[in-house]
Design brief:
Elements (H helix, E strand, L loop, with lengths): L1 E3 L2 E2 L4 E3 L8 E4 L4 E4 L7 H12 L7 E3 L5 H4 L2 H7 L4 E4 L1 H7 L2 H12 L6 H4 L13 E2 L5 E3 L4 E6 L8 E5 L4 E5 L21 H12 L5 E4 L3 E4 L1 H27 L4 H17 L7 H19 L1
Parallel strand pairs: 5-6, 6-7, 7-8, 12-13
Antiparallel strand pairs: 1-14, 2-3, 3-4, 4-5, 9-10, 10-11, 11-12, 13-14
Helix pairs in contact: 7-8, 8-9, 8-10, 9-10
The structure holds fe (ii) ion.
The site of fe (ii) ion has 5 residues, from loops.
């Protein structure tokens, strides 16, 4: 089954904010954990939803992020300012990334482009992204006790170097962020492929997380999968990653190895087909991603 990342997912998981950028609140018997921090401009809405879900914002104990992209950790600094006891966790690399002023500036610039779309939510609140300390550096095998169940940490590189997935073993629920791609509703055989740092790592991550045999996957954007759709997703995501690399190579061939030219003809050939998906990607973000991917594909062939 596939459902939107909106509202109550089950009796202890709630997707908050916007379906496009949905943090998940996981309510354990003793501790409450939020996975993903979405974009900063939605921060005030996340805060309201945290209060609605937990009764009191100060009942949120942890905020763990899946990687250091601005649309996955964006609201973390704002939420830390509102909830000073909140413990912020993720890969140690996330801490390093957030310590760089140039990165912080770029993240703020990228989110500013979207301000108009979220002006009703953000109003004139200060939601700026700033350096915050990583209270919980999380690495492979770490376990966090939430009360009646635990949250396990799995390093899952390939999308980014710092990609981290969270798994609730007693509940068989996985939060991969974007590390195994995203469901693409228009054609379930073609999950969205987002390796940006390593094709090999990305394929290995799909294999590794599929071996956990989750019964539910709560993705970093848009959707939650359950039942048979989980297994089908892993198979399709693995195969489509292989097919997608071939597609990148075809475009490189058509452009005689010229990356700029390959980007241009790939945008013409492919971008239109993703616009009518349920998660339409902004064109500049699409161009940025395929530029990185075409460079990777070219390097692998060299
Ligand atoms: Fe990402």
């Amino acid at each position: 089954m596939i459902q939107k990342s909106e509202g109550r997912i089950n009796d202890f998981i709630t997707a908050i904010g916007k379906m496009m950028y949905p943090p998940y609140i996981v309510q354990g018997g003793k501790k409450n954990l939020m996975i993903e921090a979405g974009v900063n401009l939605v921060g005030p809405m996340y805060l309201r939803d945290i209060k609605d879900t937990l009764g009191d914002i100060n009942r949120l104990d942890y905020l763990f992020v899946t990687h250091s992209h601005f649309d996955h950790l964006g609201s973390a600094p704002y939420l830390k300012r509102q909830i000073p006891t909140l413990k912020f966790g993720g890969s140690p690399i996330v801490g390093d990334v957030l310590a760089k002023e140039s990165v912080i500036n770029r993240m703020n610039q990228m989110s500013e482009h979207q301000r108009d779309a979220y002006k009703d939510i953000v109003g004139d609140e200060d939601v700026s992204i700033e350096t915050i300390p990583l209270d919980c550096p999380l690495t492979e095998g770490d376990k966090v006790d939430l009360g009646d169940f635990t949250c396990e940490v799995y390093e899952s590189p390939g999308h980014t170097r710092d990609a981290t997935s969270y798994f609730l073993p007693e509940k068989e629920i996985l939060f991969p962020g974007e590390s195994i791609g995203l469901p693409y509703i228009r054609d379930e055989k073609k999950p969205y492929v987002i390796f940006l740092t390593s094709y090999e790592d990305y394929l290995n991550t799909i294999k590794k997380l599929s071996a956990l045999k989750p019964k539910m996957i709560c993705f970093g954007h848009g959707f939650v999968l359950t039942e048979d759709d989980v297994d089908i997703y892993f198979e399709n995501s693995y195969q489509n990653t292989i097919d997608y690399k071939k597609l990148l190579e075809d475009y490189l061939d058509k452009a005689n190895g010229d990356i700029k030219e390959a980007v241009s003809i790939m945008v013409d050939g492919e971008y239109g087909s993703i616009l009518d998906g349920e998660i339409p990607q902004e064109k500049n973000a699409y161009i940025a991603n395929i530029t990185v991917q075409l460079n990777l594909a070219a390097k692998m062939r060299a």
